[in-house]
Design a protein that fits this description.
6 helices, Beta-Lactamase, single chain, Heme-binding protein
Length: about 240
């Protein structure tokens, strides 16, 4: 079984700074909450790219701290060694009429654990109060991706939250690549593991018409739009 040390070995500030605020991510350019869990769902680290402190909620969306943990938990919970499912994949399936409608209500967050500890330590990496605990939670929009080592084994997952869901997904994609834990074996999209190096988007197909019910995808983010493009770097959605 993999441990948090397997993730820590790839987790560093350079990986985070090379993934957050990069041209092409779109969104509002806000600080991001980034959480990692091991393959059992135990929180390994929670980082805020904008710093830390008791006033962190004045600089970034405080609610996104727990959402980042939810996304990591969901991606880990529903991905396997041979089949990766991102949180974005779950979006359409959990809409009314979707085959997994109601999934987001399962495995609720343990609020007593999620909000325990001093807010001054929120986002302090291995010192965040959530570290070492299993918070639970399911989140069904972009930003949660399973992590795979060079043997193609799932070792945990990351969750990113703090901007539009499309930006969250783009940041998660870049971060997983920077960590070298992007050896994805397979998933809903046939052949995506063979995409060119640097390609971002294997676990999210973007809908241009917004009708995604019962599909393995989510719509692009209207708030990322520049001159109302349907996809591409201007929306924060990075596709083939």
């Amino acid at each position: 079984m993999a441990t948090c040390n397997d993730i820590y070995s790839a987790w560093n500030n350079n990986a985070i700074t090379s993934s957050v605020g990069v041209t092409g991510n779109g969104g509002y350019g806000l600080p991001m909450w980034i959480a990692a869990v091991d393959e059992t769902g135990k929180v390994c680290a929670v980082v805020n790219s904008g710093g830390s402190g008791a006033d962190i909620g004045n600089k970034s969306w405080l609610g996104s701290r727990v959402i980042s943990i939810q996304k990591a938990t969901a991606a880990n919970s529903f991905s396997l060694d041979a089949f990766s499912i991102s949180t974005a994949n779950l979006y359409g399936l959990t809409m009314p009429g979707g085959s997994l409608y109601g999934l987001q209500m399962s495995n609720p967050v343990d609020a007593n654990v999620a909000y325990a500890g001093s807010p001054e330590n929120y986002g302090q990496g291995g010192n965040d109060p959530a570290v070492g605990k299993r918070i639970g939670g399911i989140n069904v929009f972009g930003g949660g991706l399973a992590l795979y080592n060079n043997q193609g084994k799932k070792v945990g997952a990351i969750g990113v939250s703090g901007d539009t869901s499309c930006t969250d997904h783009a940041v998660a994609w870049r971060l997983r690549t920077a960590m070298g834990l992007n050896n994805v074996p397979g998933g809903f999209i046939s052949g995506y593991a063979q995409k060119p190096a640097g390609s971002l988007g294997d676990e999210m197909i973007i809908s241009t018409n917004g009708n995604v019910t019962n599909a393995y995808k989510q719509p692009s983010c209207a708030h990322n739009a520049i001159s109302n493009p349907t996809a591409g770097s201007a929306t924060g959605v990075i596709i083939e």
